[in-house]
Amino acid sequence: MPTAIVLREHGGPEVLRPEAISLARPGAGELRLRQTAVGVNFHDCYVRSGLYRTLTLPGIPGIEAAGVVEEVGPDVADFAAGDRVAYVDARYGAYASHRILPARLAVRLPDAVSEADAAGLLVKGLTAELLVREVHAIGPGDTILVHAAAGGVGRLLCRLAVHLGATVIGTVGSEAKASIARAAGCAHVIFYRQTDFVARVRELTDGRGVAVVYDSVGKDTFAGSLDCLSVRGHLVNFGQASGAVPPFEVSRLAAGSCTLTRPILFHYIGQRADLRNLTSRLFDRLATGVLTAERGTTYELADAAAAHAALESRAADGPLLLSP
Fold this sequence. Notes:
This protein has helices at about 40-50, 115-135, 150-165, 175-185, 195-205, 220-230, 265-270, 270-290, 305-310, and strands spanning about 5, 15-20, 30-40, 65-70, 85-90, 100, 105-110, 145, 165-170, 190, 210-215, 230-235, 260, 295-300, 320-324. By secondary structure, it is an alpha/beta fold. The protein has two domains: about 5-115 and about 295-324, Quinone Oxidoreductase, Chain A, domain 1 (Alpha-Beta Complex), CATH 3.90.180; about 130-265, NAD(P)-binding Rossmann-like Domain (Rossmann fold). The strands form three sheets. Strands 3, 4, 5, 6, 7, 14 and 15 form a seven-stranded mixed β-sheet that branches. Helix 4 links the parallel strand 9 and strand 10 (about 190). The termini are close together. The model has no long low-confidence stretch (mean pLDDT about 95).
């Protein structure tokens, strides 16, 4: 009997409970998947807590997973039973042992990429790719600031930026995370709890500021991030781990003719061609060693609550996965 984590109310990790579900056969353009690895992301925590009201309750959370095609529906030409695939789905539904998935969302995995690696990397890797190429094209000579540089997206972002020729300044909260950030390519590391990161960025850049700030922290760093920008600098706010950014005067951007972006991954992979391009680029990075899939911690699907608690405690080192 297929099982899933069904979210029936918003709240803490304890609201994530397993239930038996029924599953129909795939319809036109659909696949039935036996899932082998499910990725756990901060996005899932925001959905569970109610910060993001984007999943109709009761519903099955989770946006990324990998597995094996069990059956294809009518009008599916690109996949066959036995194919290994991964996906990102804005409609949720990933926290399950089996599911029906639109075939247009699936990407076939190269032989060298395991299902566990794909489930732990796809959202974070695609996010990093679009941040350094689509949202703001990083190039040689750029100096950038990455908040939470030791985080899941942060360290991928740092590696890609360095590969593209940028100098990366990273903020972290501990010496252990500083080591991770340096290993990811950060030329300078700032302990944001102990140091005024704005003043330090200005010092490191001889007063100019940085070309772009990548900020996934949100409320606690947003104002300082604006103050770190150079003339015509770009602030990319792509998360809110510390809370939602309060309203601010748009005229603040005029001080340096700066720009602000709030990108969402789903808007960059909504078209099949865009999804293929981004995933192809990501898999190439893995094949050439620019990026590596990190080993993390795997929990049973029924223990999704424990995985969320670990992620929110900031104690997790590496990706978190659920095993159906």
